[in-house]
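Methods: example folding runs. The two proteins below were folded one after another, and each record is reproduced exactly as written to the output file, sequence line first and structure-token line second.
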Amino acid sequence: MKDDAYRLAMAAAPRAMQPSWGSRAGRLALVAGGLVALTLMAIDLQLTPQTLFTGFGKLGRLLGTAVPPDDGGQLPRILRSIAETFAMAFAGTVLAVLGAIPLGVIGAKTVVPQPALHFAFRRCLDLFRGVPALVWALILVSAFGLGPFGGVIALALADIPNLAKLFSEAIENVDGRPVEGVRAAGASPLKVMRYGLAPQVAPVMASQSLFFLEGNFRNAAVLGIVGAGGIGFELEERIRIFAFDQAAFIILLYMLAVAGLDTLSRELRKKLA
């Protein structure tokens, strides 16, 4: 029976079952080239065992000063900062969703069927997708000053092109029969979107928005380090004065908050699925 299976596999894909020497040599050359490139990058980045062991020694001493974690009598202030970070993430996500919905509709092939316009629009989204929230935050904090305002706008600007792409793909993959049914009944284009399109894509969009909210809650802490307020600012301040026990307390409390939000978001997304 094994011989029969082998003969069938040979008949279906002879090159996969018995690759030629040239194919094997090509694979070996590709693996060798990858290993050489990895070695060169490690040398360039000074990823040496000595650096690793030295860093572990310093890390051990740092962790020794961080135990036990302590709030330093600043628990109310830390909790307010975590709440501010969540508010930044929530506001940034809401603004991103509001901006991405019309862009997602325009970017869908089924809504705007012109290939040239669709290609140009998608490439424009790809261009802005290459700018991370941290870069936007550095620019906006310099323009608007320290505080959460720049962080909220940075999160929104970073998420809009990503959500717009996901929304447009969700619209393109809907079942066309309900849409055609509403259109055949003589409904206006706006009502076609409302009654034929929205019921299908709304749960998908809501699930994707919740997923981005999770990521923004984590990203907002990083933005705080560059001056956008929130828990990141508190953490950077503790590290700067070498109060590693308080920094450890902030990190642990923030991890619990992130885990709680992820759990809640996951349950909500299950109900939307």
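Second run, written to the same file directly after the first:
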Amino acid sequence: MLPHRDRSALRKIEEELAASDPVFAATLSQGVLPAQSRRWQKILVLAEATVLLMLVFGLMAGDTGWFLWGLLAAPLLVWAHRAMLQRGRERAADDQP
């Protein structure tokens, strides 16, 4: 969370921007739309299912390539989820007065 001084400075900048270019300010204030966020969550869930299938198939079939690609993709998906959660928390904290 930002200190009071920084929040007030950002509020002033936002007001000046809204006065000079209201369309641009409105576009910035919308941020990521909930539909886009849900879409990314669905994509991540599908990617997780794919990685899980790659791991299982690689183990069951004895195919090292499938298993290793799944093993490499798993940390990337964890990172993507953590980044989305952190971004959501930061937005929620910024929206609070």
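Comment on the second run: The CA atoms of residues 42 and 48 lie 10 Å apart.
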